[in-house]
Amino acid sequence: MKKFLIRLAIFCLVFFALDKLFIFVRDASPALEVDRRLEYIVTGKIKSDVLVFGSSRGARSVIAQQFIDSLGISAYNLAFPGSDVTFHEFALRMLLENKGNKRPKTIILVVDDGDEVKASKSLKFRLDRMYPLVKYKPIRDELVKRKEKKPILNELLVIHQLNKSNFLFKQRKFTKNDSIMPCGSMPIGHQKKTFDKIYGHEPYNYSKIGEMPQKTRAFRAFVKMCKDNKIQLIVALPPNFRKISTGFAERMKELTDGYGIVWKYNESNPAFSNPDNFFDNAHLQTSGSIIYTDELVKFYSKHQPH
Asked: Is the model's pTM score more than 0.85?
């Protein structure tokens, strides 16, 4: 029995010693990423007065540099393609909890017409953006909170914190669709070959049926954080290659609980029914993004906080 306990103790010591070697893998992962924006949030490096949140429609449609050039203010885009409102709520919470970040004066939340608080195959909590950053405790804590990791094992074992993506030991590169400007925006300068270019003149009728409670809670929590921190909130609807869904803007107003501004672009502007300004049915390409952001900048210039 004594020999067994000695061997067990030796095994445990060797196992834990080997496990600690994976710290080098964990801590090397962030530097391999090409999109460092979430890391900037966690490490307190966000210093802009105007911040953009949202999914790909926010990343592609709003060019933060135009706020900088037109108004002489600081602006940065923190919209992540493929992310849903639960991820946006997490990102804002991390930003406000880290005192190294500057509290923004204004947040522009770009919402997904029809899908913002509903189930969507293309919108989710971006766990793949989390794992490269597990060297940071707030990220590990969130993974535990979301039951992706076991709390005790997460504290004891480095290997438990990792994902297979941490073992891809090569520098990530920009892709044709995902290239990030210094201002954080990700406009697309080309058009998808399969884009049918058929404009949807008949708007969809938005219904609350199918809304997910966890997403409506996240949306309301996002709004509350803005309100509690005295941050101006603009909920912006970006163009799809169709009319805005009937009732969607009104539903967004309900979910803001009276705080913030729900802003719709000028649907009568022919630029937003011109296929040359779109990447596909759901996203603008650069020429359209410039026009849309120009409208947003002009609206903001009349409503910016002092």
From this structure: yes
